[in-house]
Design goal:
alpha/beta, TIM Barrel, 8-stranded parallel β-barrel, binds D-mannose, 17% strand, 4-stranded antiparallel sheet, 12 strands
Length: 347
């Protein structure tokens, strides 16, 4: 297992100098953020990013994300060239030594929350989700800026996009995902890269848009869309765990050999489709992090873990969910669990 940390590049207030001081931190998860979705990442930019990370003694083996263009998810006839560009990114990243690429297939919105600074009793704050609040918003009209909101869409563009999705059902999305995989997985196999789809967060449809990477049955269906070692999962406990219907340790044991990236964080269920993000330890939320780590360990997991969203603590401000302090505490807690589980298993 390798512990990694997400870094948003030079504009990230959390610097590589700080990240490298977290005990046993082995690598950085990052991406080229300023190339428009659908275009090919310049090789010199990939090389420069890798160099910068390697110069700090950290590895660059995981990319999160290479985003998937909406036209691919919509399955428009002109999306072939975008899929080919995606394949080229996979090849270029493989050539640069990247082993795992994380991506998602959520229409329009990525991860979504209704509250960015939910006040906790201990004075910290964190992200929270309340379904009724989210459903009361009209995404085409709202001025709200939520984390999963792509700020790059103009209002008209967003309206137009939502309109195009009106005829896209879950089954259409499955078919478009299958078509995408049929092209990118052979490219990944050749490039020595493992593709790891990120589950939908939250794991249910929102605003009438379909979401399909949500539960055990659908993960199973996903893996059979293209049966290859290069076609795998990013197992995000916070995303899947928001669904009370998901038994995470069971799912890890079932899909273990195809999990290449684990985002480990805790959440507290506050209602059927409501949750708050908490500190990482089991006792702070609803997920049993010990059982989750144990299931990974016992599945022979030998890939990448990263702590996921943290609370804002000790007065830190910055990118929601992605401050330094609470994620660093999370990393060390997870390393502790891993050490305990591995030593217990050896006895
Ligand atoms: C949120 C992240 C997601 C994730 C993408 C992967 O914190 O986990 O934005 O990076 O969905 O494509």
């Amino acid at each position: 297992m390798k512990m990694t940390f997400r870094w948003y590049g030079d504009s990230d207030p959390v610097t590589l100098e700080k990240i490298r001081q977290i005990p046993l931190m082995s690598g950085i998860v990052s991406a080229i953020y300023d190339v428009p979705v659908g275009e090919v990442w310049p090789e010199d930019r990939i090389a420069a990013l890798k160099q910068k990370i390697n110069d700090k003694g950290l590895a660059f083996e995981v990319v999160e994300s290479v985003p998937v263009h909406e036209k691919i998810k919509l399955g428009t006839p002109d999306s072939d060239v975008l899929i080919e560009n995606y394949c080229e990114n996979v090849r270029r990243l493989g050539k640069a030594g990247v082993k795992v690429i994380c991506y998602n297939f959520m229409p329009v919105f990525d991860w979504l929350r209704s509250e960015l600074e939910h006040q906790n009793a201990d004075g910290s704050n964190s992200l929270a989700y309340d379904d009724a609040t989210v459903l009361s918003l009209n995404p085409a009209e709202s001025e709200l800026s939520l984390p999963g909101w792509d700020e790059s869409y103009g209002k008209e563009e967003l309206k137009d996009l939502l309109k195009q999705y009106e005829t896209v059902t879950e089954e259409t999305l499955w078919a478009n995902l299958k078509r995408f995989l049929s092209k990118i997985i052979p490219a990944a196999e050749e490039a020595g890269v493992r593709m790891a789809i990120h589950p939908d967060d939250p794991p249910w449809g929102i605003f009438g848009l379909p979401r399909i990477i949500t539960n055990e049955a659908n993960l199973e269906r996903f893996l059979t869309l293209y049966d290859s070692e290069a076609n795998g999962l990013s197992f995000c406990t916070g995303s899947l765990g928001a669904g009370i219907f998901n038994d995470l340790p069971k799912m890890i044991r079932k899909f273990g050999s195809r999990i290449y990236f684990a985002h480990l964080r805790n959440i507290k269920h506050t209602g059927e489709r409501c949750f708050e993000e908490t500190a990482h330890p089991s006792n702070c939320g609803s997920l049993d992090m010990y059982e989750i780590v144990k299931a990974l360990y016992e599945s022979g997991f030998d890939y990448y873990i990263r702590p996921d969203h943290g609370r804002m603590i000790w007065g830190e401000t910055g990118r929601y969910g992605y401050g330094l302090y609470d994620r660093a505490l999370g990393a060390v807690y997870l390393l502790g669990l891993w050490e305990a589980v591995s030593k217990n298993t050896e006895q």
